[in-house]
Specification:
Elements: H1 14-33, H2 44-61, H3 63-68, H4 76-88, H5 95-111, H6 114-126, H7 132-144, H8 148-154, H9 156-165, E1 169-171, E2 180-182, H10 184-194, H11 205-213, H12 225-235, H13 239-246, H14 252-267, H15 287-296, H16 299-304, H17 306-321, E3 331-335, H18 350-365, E4 371-375, H19 393-402, E5 407-411, H20 422-434, E6 441-446, E7 449-450, E8 455-456, E9 465-467, H21 474-481, H22 489-504
Parallel strand pairs: 1-2, 3-4, 3-5, 5-6, 6-9
Antiparallel strand pairs: 7-8
Helix pairs in contact: 1-2, 1-22, 4-5, 4-6, 5-7, 6-9, 7-9, 8-9, 15-17, 15-18, 17-18, 19-20
Length: 533
């Protein structure tokens, strides 16, 4: 890890600012890719230890940038860790920092899946974090939930624990500022959570369905899917019968996950299943999630439904490209489908799915007919991609550059091993001798966190590298990656963070200050590196 004790003769704080910018980019890469789960080449324990160190280091030295990371495209796991870290160390923040952090935390909690937020609240309670600021944030989030009855049924323990921790009341009367929800429905929710035997029945259909589901099998299908699964097991319902009844109430993602589970049963010969689910509209699925689903299918199913799957992937890619579609000119993509792209038990085929999704996104971003794809396995049919073989990145990078692209995008975990180091040497010679004017923009996006290096693995020092989790974030990550080249400067990075944070919190002016003064560490004062004020 680089140190912040840096000074140069060019002026106070200039060297420290560059080091701070490197540390910020390193943390952003980790927060995008790392989830504390096992990867192909590292264990979950290694990832957790590495993330623990990174979070502590950045929170202590660059607290305001640590908070500003909530406005970036980091994954939910690290967003929750940042929120928890900020709330657990409130005593280290100034009043100005607390106000800025509060806006960022509220905006991020609104985007997180509710189950993650309820787990966060339980963790804060277990850690004894019970200051006024934390209670206010929790009360505001609870009060903003669109359907408290739905949460009471689906997240019953989480909602009850959070409400008890912050003294949140579900009353029939409204008292502004009292930290309560005041409607008759809220009164029912309060009784449901804390006085379950008080009412013989509920007027709210979902609450009453939960009551009836204890003894009436027909009420099970009226509940959210995850809740219905438990009652179905209690009543001895077959899973196929439950799914048939639950389809109208399931979300798209729940339907797709259920189909994937049934498909695993079909492979074992216990369930007969149609090749593709008729009740799931694949054309509206998110790009990376759809790529994961496609890779879960057998080669025979992918081949038989080639047109339908390709159409869905291209539709998702066009949505992800948005207004940038067709604006990248001539693009070459080097895509890693080597054996290591199989991922791990926790992230099964995730790296390969990111590469497949990036393939269709790069096709959408490039000019018509201006896209060239080179897979490390030598394959030419992306729909039949599978993790196989070594990682000969160097020869494929050389082939891609021979096409003279305006942009070269490499999607790989960075383990160039056939032969080792060739890709880095090719890129070094290309940059220093053949293309010093940088007519071809080169960027490497890496879907795998390297726990030992506290970053994603890089191919060459002169090639910007960014971590990636979802292919949909590729255009934004290419923008961030340019700062890794060192050409834009620390001030441009902080200005970029300014804009992202301001947009994230709804247009409120939030500034990211410059680097720390020479010989100082960013401890949250006005001279801290990357200060969000």
């Amino acid at each position: 890890m680089t140190s912040t004790h840096t000074s140069t003769a060019t002026g106070p704080g200039v060297g420290a600012g560059l080091v701070a910018a490197e540390d910020v980019l390193l943390f952003v890469n980790a927060a995008i890719t790392a989830t504390g789960q096992r990867e192909f080449r590292s264990t979950a324990q290694q990832h957790r230890l590495s993330l623990d160190f990174l979070h502590a280091y950045v929170r202590v030295n660059y607290r305001r940038v640590y908070a500003a990371a909530l406005a970036l495209d980091i994954n939910d796991h690290n967003a929750v860790r940042i929120v928890q870290g900020l709330l657990e160390t409130s005593a280290e923040a100034t009043a100005q920092e607390k106000r800025a952090e509060g806006r960022l935390i509220a905006a991020r909690l609104a985007k997180l899946p509710p189950q993650r937020v309820y787990r966060l609240f339980r963790a804060l309670r277990a850690a004894g974090v019970n200051n006024r600021r934390t209670r206010a944030i929790m009360r505001d989030w609870l009060a903003a939930r669109p359907d408290p009855a739905h949460d009471a049924v689906k997240y019953r323990t989480g909602l009850r624990t959070a409400a008890r921790h912050v003294h949140f009341r579900f009353d029939t009367d409204t008292d502004p500022g009292s930290g309560s929800v005041g409607t008759d429905e809220a009164g029912e929710v309060g009784d449901f959570l804390f006085r379950p035997g008080r009412r013989p029945r509920y007027r709210h259909p979902l609450l009453d369905a939960w009551r009836r589901a204890h003894y009436e099998q027909g009420a099970v299908a009226e509940l959210p899917f995850t809740v219905a699964e438990g009652f179905a097991s209690r009543h001895g319902m077959k899973r196929e019968v439950l799914l048939e009844r639950m389809i109208p109430r399931m979300t798209r993602l729940e339907r797709l996950r259920s189909v994937e589970r049934l498909r695993a049963s079909a492979r074992r010969g216990t369930v007969a299943l149609a090749p593709l689910p008729a009740d799931v509209d694949l054309t509206v699925m998110p790009l990376t999630r759809l790529a994961l689903y496609v890779l879960s299918l057998g080669f025979d199913v992918r081949s038989a439904h080639r047109a339908e799957l390709t159409r869905a992937l291209r539709a998702a890619a066009r949505r992800a490209a948005g207004p940038q579609a067709g604006s990248w000119g001539k693009v070459a993509g080097v895509l890693d489908d080597s054996h290591s792209s199989s991922g791990s038990g926790e992230k099964r085929r995730r790296p390969l799915a990111v590469a497949l999704a990036c393939h269709f996104l790069l096709e959408a971003l490039s000019a018509p007919g201006g896209y060239t794809a080179l897979w490390t396995s030598g394959g030419t049919d992306p729909l039949l991609a599978r993790p196989w073989g070594p990682t000969p990145l160097g020869s494929h990078v050389l082939d891609a550059l021979e096409h003279g692209p305006d942009r070269l995008v490499i999607v790989s975990d960075g383990w160039d091993n056939a032969p080792p180091g060739l890709a880095g040497e090719v890129l070094r010679v290309w940059r220093t001798r053949l293309d010093p004017d940088r007519r071809t923009a080169v960027v490497h996006v890496n879907p795998v966190y390297d726990a030992d290096g506290f970053d994603v693995r890089r191919l060459a020092p002169g090639v910007p590298t960014a971590g990636i989790r979802d292919a949909e974030d590729l255009p934004a990550l290419v923008e961030i990656a340019r700062f890794a080249e060192g050409r834009s400067g620390a001030d441009a990075l902080y200005a970029y963070l300014d804009g992202r944070v301001e947009r994230f919190v709804g247009g409120h002016p939030v500034a990211v200050a410059g680097p720390p003064a020479a010989g100082t560490r960013g401890t949250g004062d006005a001279q801290g590196a990357g200060v969000v004020s």
